[in-house]
Amino acid sequence: MNAAISVVSVVGIGADGWDGLPETSRRLLRDAEVLIGGPRQLDLLDPADCGGERIAWPSPLRPAVPGLLAAHEGRAIAVLASGDPSFYGIARTLAETVGADRLRVHPHPSSVSYACARLGWALEAVETVSLVARPLGALAAALHPGRRVLVLGEGPGTPADVAAYLRATGWGDTRIRVLEQLGGPAERVLDATAADWPHERTDALHVLALDCVRDPGTLRLGATPGLPDEAYEHDGQLTKRYVRAATLAALAPAPGELLWDIGGGSGSIGIEWMRTHRSCRAVAVEKSPERAARITRNADALGVPALRVVTGPAPAALAGLPTPDAVFIGGGLTAPGLLDACWDALPAGGRLVANTVTLESEALLADRHRRHGGELIRLAVSAAVPVGGFTGWRQAMPVTQWSVTKGSGTEASVTRGSGTEASVTRGSGTEASVTRGSVTKEEEA
Description:
It contains twelve helices and 20 strands. By secondary structure, it is α/β, with parallel strands linked by helices. Residues 409-445 have low confidence and may be disordered.
């Protein structure tokens, strides 16, 4: 961006238009030589009050921003935005374009603030989901009984689409309120359940308020890793629930981090990584086109449609992927060069977790454990099953897991297991045991 543009003013405006603006915002708009915004925002200004040149945002918007601002360098620019420009608004794009030091944002109350004020909801206790340029599946992770969710709609048909989605996914008793034209003279509220929603179209300027109610018989999905296996569409290629929970604990996702889920199968590890925080990202790498398509369907159904799926064999399919914060290898460990490619891709402090059930792959993990350290454990899960008229334990195939954090040098410091075994008996009739790898000093040498 050319240094001649000293400041870009961003002015939030509501449905009440000029009347709802403070004098500071009015003065900026009066003095602006160039007014940029959407047609709806620009139409709220009377030319008698604001005589600057008016420019509507082109579509697509983001690629046009640098050139549009550069074309008016040296002039007083005011950008109009709905409500609070920093809340799912244009302010982020402008800050990335001109820099935060050249941006002055003058917010108006956001539609979410208005909605909470009308409903008597505590703003900090409400989850907000934007469906602007996002699929309906983005709602799924926010749906929990008793929760209040505000949804930013994309257009007049969004409320009907949301109602249909809720009916189809087992949330038909959820109460929907559509708050239109908040803060303006045409403000209105529409109220019904998803099951009997009668409105095919509403005003384009709206917010949806959901009081979530799960239908009887709908599968309960918790907020922590270890979702029920029944939550996934799969062909048997699925990291099972208790192993999955232990694997996510070893991966230790944090907000904003990126995971490579290699040998994605049904996508469960990448999906549950992303469900831990809305800013977590994941790339699932799967060589089978059929399974790759299944991963996409599972991600949509479980509320993380932004999960990226790469179809192809690893390590070749890893070329060009963004640097990961963590890598999970759930399949294909014996592929030549895979472990080395994953290790080399990780930055210092990155984590790698690999699971296997075969002796051949276990030998590879034991070798890497000797070279790089970390922790080598075996996960064994047994389920109570009928044995004649009695009950006994049936053990699933044990899973060997290697987890390691990459150090700043060529090797991480070596942390070995103590050789202890722990067992936990769960109230549901499932027993899990963990055996940690033990290594003597002679073996280390």
